[in-house]
Amino acid sequence: MPYKTRLTVRFGDVDKAGIVYFPRIFHYMHIAQEDFFAEYVGVPYHQLIEKEGIGFPTVSDATDFVGVIRYGDVLEITVFISRIGASSATFEFRLHRQATGELLARAAQVKVAVDVQTWQKVLIPDRLRQSFASCQEH
To answer: Whole-model pTM?
Structure first.
């Protein structure tokens, strides 16, 4: 079952054109990823990094910017896992305007499990793999 979170676009997120500056959308997806780990997986992402020494950096990204995001928009961000490998997983993100349901952006990001001390890839721990598997879209 996919995970969903909400985020409100802030004043500092928009550019001179009055729309969200596109790198902020990547930040929104990372916020959704952090919420996913805390609320769905059951471990805050910072604890996964600090206490367990595991991180999931993005190594590949394919993002489509479909609609305009403006200051004050409330975004509903859906996260699901489309593929799980031994050391990597593909996180999918869908950003919709909550008020209308309009799709504004979609992304597929491949994230690799790494030891944050050595930056070498590691196997995805079984408990994380189980959470990822339960978040696959069927």
So the answer is: 0.95
